[in-house]
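for the recovery benchmark. tokens below, seq after
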């Protein structure tokens, strides 16, 4: 039985993880790290703590659906304090320092980072790479839609999709990304990749990558209708990751894509 610790257990996906681990035959919830109060019931014997060392020592693998500041504390436990457990990280919105910590941690333990734990999005990333390369002269635009409470924009998933499109065309996304258009901005440039955000209601997540040309266009869509998509994908990733050597992995590695 694989003992799983949850960082971000008071969040929406963290709550679903508690439920999904409870019915998974190969895993069990062993620890929850909290900064405030965990109101959701957890199985008897589950450690609930705000001490990162205690939390990590109790776990065989950690799944993180939290916030950048919390993930930073987790990564420092590995980089600075000798933490040794594999990490499945699904938090987005990292700054450069946090990105560097992620890379440093992956030199010491297996780290699987995915901006979206959906298995369908993993396949979508591959399709976007293929289509963007094959349709090099088509204009590429990414549109993402999320619920009104999402705090980062564009979504990490949208940026990852755009990175796949840019990489397939040998482009630097930071140099070609446009995430807002207003006023007399002139015609669209040849290489730019638009990444736009919509917010409203209770949309779990919808991502569209469009490739547009004169006379034709193709659009690739993924819609998440339940957050369990993310929790179940993370559990699958955790089971795979515990058998890997230190390094930085993606959900594509887990699926063999």
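predicted aa per position
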């Amino acid at each position: 039985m694989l003992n799983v610790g949850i960082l971000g257990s008071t969040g929406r996906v963290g709550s679903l993880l508690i439920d999904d681990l409870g019915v998974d035959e190969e895993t069990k919830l062993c620890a929850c790290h909290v900064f405030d109060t965990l109101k959701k019931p957890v199985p008897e014997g589950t450690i609930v703590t705000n001490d990162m060392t205690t939390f990590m020592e109790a776990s065989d693998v950690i799944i993180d659906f939290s916030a950048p500041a919390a993930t930073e504390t987790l990564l420092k436990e590995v980089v600075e304090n000798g933490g040794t457990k594999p990490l499945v990280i699904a938090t987005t919105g990292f700054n450069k320092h946090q990105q560097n910590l992620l890379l440093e941690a992956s030199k010491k333990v297996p780290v699987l980072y995915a901006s979206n734990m959906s298995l369908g999005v993993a396949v979508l990333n591959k399709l976007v790479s293929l289509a963007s390369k094959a349709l090099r002269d088509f204009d590429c635009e990414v549109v993402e839609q999320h619920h009104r409470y999402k705090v980062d924009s564009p979504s990490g998933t949208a940026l990852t999709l755009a990175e796949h499109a840019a990489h397939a065309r040998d482009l630097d996304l930071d140099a070609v990304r446009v995430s807002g258009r207003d006023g007399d901005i002139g015609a669209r440039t040849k290489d730019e990749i638009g990444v736009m955000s919509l917010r409203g209601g209770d949309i779990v997540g919808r991502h569209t990558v469009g490739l547009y040309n004169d006379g034709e266009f193709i659009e690739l869509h993924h819609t998440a209708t339940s957050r369990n998509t993310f929790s179940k994908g993370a559990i699958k990733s955790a089971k795979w990751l515990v058998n890997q050597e230190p390094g930085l992995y993606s959900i594509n590695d887990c699926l063999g894509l």
